[in-house]
Specification:
The chain has about 280 residues and is an alpha/beta fold. The chain is built from seven helices and 13 strands. The chain has a single domain, classed as Spore Coat Polysaccharide Biosynthesis Protein SpsA, Chain A (Alpha-Beta Complex), CATH 3.90.550.
């Protein structure tokens, strides 16, 4: 099969159970900048408006039709496994993969390779929050074209800067520049993807980045080099919860959300019911 055609597999529906996509949630983060909040718990369990941040992802995935997920754990992994269990409370079948050392997102995804059974992966970083909630994930699984979510920020140099043919709906990824530290605005990697299984295979051959980590984004750009295309899905409402200030922003976004997951265990109440 032509590499470019691998992104054009028959489309699956996003209104019922999805059989050809599994979720992979990267939950091995430590969260050093969050201080006391992560002194005795993993970053994936830090509360956002009263709910562990990973809860938002799992409940949204169930609502868009995902039925099986692999959680990649590391630091204090037993707490994540105790909280999520077998996934039944979320309406999911959950399996676990272990990343013994924090060697980057590419290494984390590589740890899940033996557990993923489907030709497509819905990949998320557990320590980010999307104000769009379910609607963002629904856009990712609406068809079987590889996608990466991008968010425009004033200081793109602190993140993975996305190089695109044009910004806005329908743009395609040309490359990714990891944390160039330039304090300029730009579109950044927001930590959510729909990827073909081939990208998972490519994590086995990527080299360490200049900062000594195996980057998932390098596997994505390797897929592009093979002829694949990756659509950039813009989101207007995203935050990395890595600092107390960003965590407060995420909590405010959660309280103000008008589109919370519905009918799912652990779902938040509508924003009007929250105490400010």
């Amino acid at each position: 099969m032509n590499p470019a055609d691998r992104g054009k597999l028959p489309e699956g529906g996003a209104t019922g159970p999805i059989s050809d996509v599994e979720g992979v949630l990267l939950c091995a983060g430590v969260g050093k900048r969050l201080g006391a909040l992560t002194a005795d718990r993993p970053k994936a369990l830090v509360p956002v408006a009263g709910r562990p941040v990973l809860n938002y992802h799992l409940t949204a995935w169930q609502e868009v039709g995902i039925r099986r997920a692999v959680l990649v754990t590391g630091h204090l992994r037993e707490q994540v496994e105790e909280y999520v269990g077998d996934g039944a409370r979320f309406g999911l079948e959950v399996d676990y993969a272990f990343q013994p050392e924090r060697r980057g997102t590419g290494d984390a995804l590589r740890a899940a390779r033996g557990s993923v059974r489907t030709p497509w992966l819905l990949v998320g970083y557990a320590d980010v929050f999307f104000g769009e909630g379910v609607s963002l994930w629904r856009r990712l699984v609406a068809d079987r074209r590889p996608k990466i979510v991008g968010a425009r920020v004033p200081n793109a140099g602190s993140y993975g800067r996305l190089l695109v043919d044009h910004e806005g709906s329908g743009g395609h990824l040309l490359g990714i520049q990891e944390k160039d530290r330039l304090p300029t605005p730009g579109l950044v990697n927001a930590g959510a993807y729909l990827l073909p299984h081939r990208v998972l295979e490519l994590t086995e051959s990527i080299a360490p980045s200049p900062r000594g980590e195996f980057e998932l984004t390098d596997a994505v750009t390797a897929w592009i080099a093979e002829g694949g295309e990756v659509e950039v899905v813009p989101t207007p409402s995203w935050v990395d919860i890595g600092t107390p200030e960003h965590l407060e922003t995420a909590s405010r976004m959660a309280r103000e959300s008008s589109n919370p997951p519905s009918g799912v265990p652990g779902s938040p109440r509508p924003a009007r019911d929250h105490d400010e």
